[in-house]
């Protein structure tokens, strides 16, 4: 097939809601966009281990500690599925990590905020994982097969994460007045950054139109943000907590909640690297990567030895 026929076949597969697989021809822009988004997503998962990892040793009970450890391990696993999905596009994991470490690829803005209290484990689970689910469920229908399939398992695990965060906050909110205040203070800090996770407003989102035409994104940033607000407001009522937005109000006509203006200047600063914890997160990630060099070397030496053995067996 010549290039025109290849493009026609690709367009037909996307239009017909079929999956594009690694060996299929794809436009260079499609490949690059997927690498950018999947890598950013993978980086978010492994950087996202840090804010919660900081609380494992301070969890209030053995049960809470075991649950938090399992959750943080799940996030490592999500990173691994996603790096594997990105590698099917012809890029090496070490290159992706190098781009993360040198600031040439992004990770989610949300992980540049500090975790100041135990209640933050609840807010991250309820709001951050809640936002992640709303964003990621449609990616299970992404046109690129390996990304879509990775998302199915990730979304199942994220649902558990969201529930455990809700349960932490429910417990605190219905506990002592001090516990309730801790939960409320935490939700106050995480609400607006969670809304920013969905990305810039549609009229300032340079990638959305093309990504939607390619079936990588299924909904716009604003659509998903609205869906998250509509889902979360009733849950806050069940928790007995308020959301820090005086403009939050149900629009009876549309059935959607209206909400206040998001501070997009803060968002831009955070994604440019000037958030409260950007430098700390990257420094710790690079440190962990350097500390793990011996593991990678040992794994390579073992793989080389196995390969030599099996060559010997064939000979
Ligand atoms: N943070 O044109 P736009 C999780 C960037 S982790 C940082 O709308 P796009 C979890 C965007 O990359 C959640 N940067 O972009 C883990 C672009 O810059 P570049 C991670 C952001 O790609 C552990 C520029 O702004 N989830 O679930 O069409 C524990 C213009 O934006 C952000 C994913 O990654 C942001 N929030 O749409 C708990 C989901 N938003 O790249 C939870 C997959 C925008 O051109 N990703 N930017 O330099 C997506 O769905 C899309 O990439 C986005 C952005 C909706 C995030």
UniProtKB/TrEMBL annotation:
Matching entries from Pfam families are given as: PaaA_PaaC
Q: Which domain of life is it from?
A: Bacteria
Q: What is this protein called?
A: 1,2-phenylacetyl-CoA epoxidase subunit PaaA
Q: What is the lineage of its organism?
A: Bacteria, Bacillati, Actinomycetota, Actinomycetes, Kineosporiales
């Amino acid at each position: 097939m010549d290039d025109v026929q290849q493009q026609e076949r690709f367009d037909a597969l996307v239009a017909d809601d079929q999956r594009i697989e690694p060996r299929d021809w794809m436009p260079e822009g499609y490949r690059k966009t997927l690498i950018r988004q999947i890598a950013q997503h993978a980086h978010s998962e492994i950087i996202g281990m840090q804010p919660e990892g900081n609380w494992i040793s301070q969890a209030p009970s053995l049960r809470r500690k075991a649950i938090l450890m399992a959750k943080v391990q799940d996030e490592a696993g999500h990173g691994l599925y996603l790096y594997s999905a990105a590698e099917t596009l012809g890029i090496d994991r070490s290159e992706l990590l190098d781009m993360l470490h040198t600031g040439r690829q992004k990770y989610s803005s949300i992980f540049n905020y500090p975790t100041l209290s135990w209640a933050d484990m609840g807010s991250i689970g309820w709001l951050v994982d809640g936002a992640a689910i709303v964003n990621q469920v449609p990616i299970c229908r992404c046109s690129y097969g390996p990304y879509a399939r990775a998302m199915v398992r990730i979304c199942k695990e994220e649902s558990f994460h969201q529930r455990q965060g809700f349960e932490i906050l429910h417990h605190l909110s219905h506990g002592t007045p001090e516990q309730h205040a801790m939960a409320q203070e935490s939700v106050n800090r995480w609400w607006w950054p969670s809304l920013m996770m969905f990305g810039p407003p549609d009229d300032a989102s340079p990638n959305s139109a093309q990504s939607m035409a390619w079936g990588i994104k299924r909904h716009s940033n604003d659509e998903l943000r609205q869906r998250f607000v509509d889902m979360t407001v009733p849950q806050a009522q069940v928790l007995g907590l308020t959301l820090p937005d005086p403009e939050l109000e149900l629009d009876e006509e549309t059935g959607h909640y209206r909400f206040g203006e998001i501070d997009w200047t803060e968002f831009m600063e955070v994604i440019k690297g000037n958030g409260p914890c950007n430098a700390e997160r990257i420094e710790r990630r690079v440190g962990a990567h350097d500390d793990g060099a011996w593991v990678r070397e040992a794994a390579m030496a073992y793989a080389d030895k196995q390969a030599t053995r099996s060559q010997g067996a064939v000979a």
